[in-house]
Amino acid sequence: MTIMKSEIQARSIEDQTLPVCLADIERAAARIRDRVTRTPLVRSASLSRLTGRPVHLKLETHQPIGAFKLRGATNAIVALDQTARERGLVTASTGNHGRAVAYAAQMLGIPATICMSSLVPANKVEAIRALGADIRIVGVSQDDAQEEVDRLVADHGLTPIPPFDHVDIVAGQGTIGLEIVEELPDLSTVLIPLSGGGLAAGIAVAVKASRPQARIIGISMERGAAMHASITAGRPVAVREEQTLADSLGGGIGLSNDVTFPICRALLDNIVLLTEEEIAGGIRHIARAENEVVEGAGAVGVGAILAGKVKLSGPTVAILSGSNIAPDVHRHIIEGDAA
Question: Are 295 and 248 in contact (CB under 8 A)?
Answer without folding.
Answer: yes
